[in-house]
Amino acid sequence: MTSVEQVVFLAANVPWFGSHSGETAMLPHLSRLTKLKTIIPRESVSRRCVGKLYSMFHGWPPRNQYISFSELHASMLYRSKKNSVFHLLRSEAHPDFLSLWDEVPKNIVSTIHLPVALWPEEYRRAVSRLSSVIVYFKSEMERIGSMMKRPNVKFVHDGVDTDFFTPAPSRPQAPPRILYGGVYLRNEPMLVRMVKRLVEKNPELRFDLLVPQHRRKSPALAPLLEHAAVTWHAGLNDEQLRALYQNAYLLLLPMNDSGANTSIVEALATGLPVATTDVGGIRDYGGGTLFPVVTNDDDDAMIALVEQYLSKSGWHDEISRTSRQFAEETLSWRLVAQKHMQAYRELAL
Prior knowledge:
Helix content is 38%, strand content 14%.
């Protein structure tokens, strides 16, 4: 193969993403650069049955059989289109599929999203077989490469739909609203401590917490369930999600670890300044350069940072402007699609 003639995507459904969130928002831009085929798990009785038979044939443990069916589809295409690049957009969902090879062919490209510490043993074994890897964070590139038989790892930024996630036409009205969103890898105890302390010092503050209903009663978040300064959100459509970003003054997102983070790239695109912790891949998305970061669980430093945003409106607005600029110049899916094409040429040809 001398050029990328076609890209076949084995994608995954992420139920909490709308049509403008997540990697599948890149596909329309990539389709302008190459021929594209996308395989996405879809639910049906026939797909579940065929997927189960495929899993049983390989002796795989109980798993999502819709994903298994999509892997069967991809393997059949692979046999007939070996001059194509096959891209597993969320390789963490496919450790059993990757076990079909002792050494995965280099034109099967896998994106890694998760920090190494979170990998189950079966995924570690799968990564050891990979030949071509894209990562969304630099902090563990060398470590990931050391786990592979033939290390070939490229960094590409996660992207964001900068045409949809845009700044509000005018600054949100008082009182200032602080946004928090998500569940995975979040430092929820730190969030609770921040909300309580910030409201004690700044009673006018209001907090919007975008958290699934089933998660709100967790021991960590339960202390905020009836808090007067907190409004809970879940099940939003794309426009409602964008409005949350646009109406907020700050994204408060304490993290325990991070690869790439969808909440952060969407905040950057809307010009929403970010207050987060210095973990994982945060620095690849502006942490420490575009916006300050604090040590995880350093409550005093986080309080001081939030209060600096609240008291220095000019500084806040400058970070808002440069955050949007960074998103447009680095994270736009149009640009990230071009970077993926370059990665395919370097990894798979």
